[in-house]
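Worked example

This section walks through a single chain of length 429. The input is the sequence exactly as stored; nothing has been trimmed or padded.
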Amino acid sequence: MSSLQPATVAPIEDTSLTAFYKDMTVPERRTFWACASGWALDGMDFMIYPLVVGTIIKLWNVDPTSAGFAVTVTLLASAIGGWGGGYLADRIGRVRTLQLTILWFSVFSLICAVAQDFNQLLIARALLGLGFGGEWAAGAVLMGEAIRAQYRGRAVGSVQSGWAIGWGLAVLAQAILFSYLPAESAWRWMFVIGALPALLVFYLRRYVEEPQIAAETRARQKAKGDGPAIWEIFSGPILKTTILASLAVTGCQGGYYAITAWLPRFLTTERHLSIVGSTGYLATLIIGSFIGYLVGAWLADRIGRRLLFLTFSIGAIAVVIAYTQLPLSNESLWLLGFPLGFFASGYFSGMGAFLTELYPTRLRGSGQGFCYNFGRGVGALFPALVGYLSTTMTLANAIAIFAVAAYGLFFLAAFALPETRGRILQADA
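Given that input, the structure is written out below as tokens.
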């Protein structure tokens, strides 16, 4: 049943960042652009709420704890959606699951735009999270299986960089809409823009093919009547992998969300910047994030997934402490946004390929979907806890406490996991 051959490693001859793209076939390129676009629009959709949370707090008199809880609910729902989406990807196919999940979270983004009170918005965000988590699970497995082993880290990591582009699009939309529209309506139009990913489904239906390795495995399972069970990732030797991978993702997700969910609020309250004035600070952070994704993608194949995680977790801890604890001027804070974005995002570039390589083909969607989105779910507690703690201390201190704790967990779990760089995936027998 094993589809992973740890001793079978693909040689990495061309180590340049763009080598994978130059050597891609037409179907591989179509898959690459579909997944990159989906991840960019996914990132845009998620980051809309942190950007408008300050407005919602003022308009509806929402306390910070409840506002942070909305992020937590979205991510908790994404944990369920990711596990379910991954399981569906193993049962009905990667491409079909990707189509369904994109349509799902696009519809609920539109519903967020017409919410009449905070409770309605909370419910809509929770339902959006189901599709949000499932989209990543299906897309990451699709991309990981479509790319050859020697290029997998760079290709999947480059797709991950689409998140920064989506984040940038959300910030740009915020700057434009809040400049020309009153805040009372601008935030609603932000969520309308979040429904745009639905257009991607037309491209997926026409141009993107199911990976051969996945199609062959499902055909054999159907012939034998031996489909994967949803609990199979918790049995036998797979259990240890699932536990450690889930802890690693919990750390990297918790640290990231503790920072990004509250940074816009930190800039406008404790740094006294206007919404439009904070755009330049967020732009520096996003540029650093985008470069971090690309460098992380290159390093994932160059030095390996595990060393990438260890290096970036230490870097993230150092920069978070400096950003939140040192008495820096706003100008210095603006410059420090680049390394903050770099280290707080770049490690994600190795995560998709890493989780793909940890599991056999019959369980890849379930395993990858569960681990990544379990991490999202537990990491989702961090924004709510930051919001709660910020009522008794400064927001900067609350962010620092939970971000450092999360990155410490990430470091320890990554240290306990094996290196998977260059593993060749095979269809299950």
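What to look for: The chain has a mean pLDDT of 85.
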